[in-house]
Amino acid sequence: PxxxxxxxxxxxxxxxxxxxxxxxxxxxxxxxxGGVFNTRYDQIHLVPADPPEAxxxxxxxxxxxDQIALVERGGCSFLSKTRVIQEHGGRAVIIADNxxxxxxFYIEMIQDSSRRTADIPxxxxxxxxxxxxxxxxxxxxxxxxxxxxxxxxxxxxxYEMMQPPWTFW
Length: 169
Known about the structure:
The protein is α/β, with parallel strands linked by helices. The chain has three helices and seven strands. Helices cover about 15% and strands about 25% of the residues. Strands 1-2-6-5-4-3-7 form a seven-stranded mixed β-barrel.
């Protein structure tokens, strides 16, 4: 994989809109399935899946085509969710923990026992971060956020690193 995107390292994305959550978020790539980002998307939609757990047919699958899906943990395996998003034409999936108060514990997303595979990148996001993104979209009546991913944080001066205020570093 390209430098900076190896297993067990963090991957960063920035929400560009809505403005009240214009932060840089930290995610962790799946451990043993899924692809890597070989493109940087400067502006791509982050679309919350409907239903949120994305274990089957999606009601808003048409909006996920060529975009990135925000999915909630639970109901089926990480790999199943990733495959559902891939089948709907998503470029990647970000799976947020379903514990909304989780602001520090990254879960290792591993293969299930089905021997299936997935080609798109799958990232794990803290439950608190996923919740705050979805809440902001609901408050603004927006169907998706606009993000850039991946963000190379080593090129950003520390004082400009816009971390979410609810996260401890």
